[in-house]
Amino acid sequence: MKLSRQELIRVLQDWNQAWDNHDLDGVVALFDDDILFENWTGAKVKGKEALRKAWMPWFVNHGGFRFSGEDIFIDEQDQKILYRWMLENPSFEKGFEGKPERRRGVDLLHFKDGKIIEKLTYSKTSVEINGERIALHA
Known about the structure:
Layout: H1 5-20, H2 24-28, E1 31-38, E2 44-46, H3 48-60, E3 66-75, E4 80-90, E5 100-112, E6 115-123, E7 126-129, E8 132-135
Parallel strand pairs: 1-6
Antiparallel strand pairs: 1-2, 3-4, 4-5, 5-6, 5-7, 7-8
C-alpha cells in the first residue's frame, strides 16, 4: 500500500502532534514492527518494541522538549520524507546539563505499507546553548 502525498503529510502531522504531546505510544504507533532507527550518534535500534524501550527514559523525563518543523521534502513515488527540524530541550551535553538547548537536524523517513520502516536522523555538529554555539565532541 502506497500513501498519497496528502496521506504522507497527514502521517507527518500526526507524528509531530505525538511528539508535541510527549506521547511515546502515539509516536511508536506510526512505525512498522521492523523499524530501523539510527540516531545522530550512529547508534541503531531494530524493532518497534526495542525502540520503545530505548526511548522510554527520554519520554518519561522529557523536560518539555519540542520539535519545530522547518522544511519538508516528500517523494511520493519512493515513499520517503526528508524532514528538517529544530529540537528545543534541556541539554544533556556534559557541562551544560539542563540548560536550554537548540539542536538542528533532519530525519529521513522511509515508508512501507503506510508505516515508517526506517528513520535515519542526522544532526549538526554544534548546538545552541544559552545563545552560544557549542561544538559537539565525539
